[in-house]
Amino acid sequence: MSSQALESTLSSYHPLVPIPYFQCGFTTSTLSISSNPSLAIVDLIDEFIGVHKISSRTAHPLVSPPNPIDHGINDSEYESNCVCLPPPPLAWEAFYPKGSINPSAEIPGGFGFYLSGPKEFSDGLLSSSDGTGAKEILMSYRMMLQSDWEWAKGGKLPGVFGGIDNLAYGCSGGRKDGRESCFDVRIMWRSKGAGELYIYLPLTAENKKRLSNVPPLSLENPDFGFSVGRGAFFIPVGRWISIAIRVKLNAVGVDDGEIELWIDGASVISITGLSFRNSEKSGLKGMHFQTFFGGNKPDWASPKDQRAWFADVTGVIVG
Question: Which single residue of 85, 205, 300, 306 could bond 294 by disulfide (Cβ 3.0 to 4.6 Å)?
Fold first, then answer.
């Protein structure tokens, strides 16, 4: 990314909420994010922020994370313009044992659950047959990988999900049934820290066209989701970064949905002309807060015991 291109994508707003306006929301951050009085501050505690459907074979203990050690980032221009915030006092810890892949494998790693936010926020997300509920949200968090992190082939990081009632859950892992009733937009890392969006959307020709054209590299994975914008950003190790994802639903029958991703306040991927749904019953549900190495085969496994930390979970309803 050139310096000129980077400057054009940097937000002047807080990297956890890099947009000028929102209706209401919540954050577990102790940092000053917004003057908007509708941004509720809550503790990073499961029951306070709507954590549910927790993977039974992994854990996400709340810990005091280690002090960050800035080992830089692959793109020096990006690093020089990043927004480096004070470290959070508490974070969820993800543990990836040597040989681990996804939480259902023989050696599970990372953790997984869904997160709908505090009651006022989750009530605002509700969508029903009369079309009520949020049409656009932004969800964000901060994360840090241990300073001697080894990437292997790749792995997953949290993102946004939605759909129709319980059909919204499990919209990943090569799901084939009910794909018009769910969507899932997560982050993925690849070898050497190259980042991308890993997306499951309804299988339409227009979605395929739009996702395939995102630079620098986008690929449709047979039987799985779309790898979108691979290499549009690189993930550093040993320091905290901010990740924010905005999803705007399409009007039913119109391809006008949107996805945007910010890393440390810089907009790195922006996609328009998408379809998330073909029914008013399909709505935004919150975060698919999942992380693991993989892939679903042993050659994706973590090469050693490793840890990562997640904090400052934030969500706002834009419209």
Answer: 300
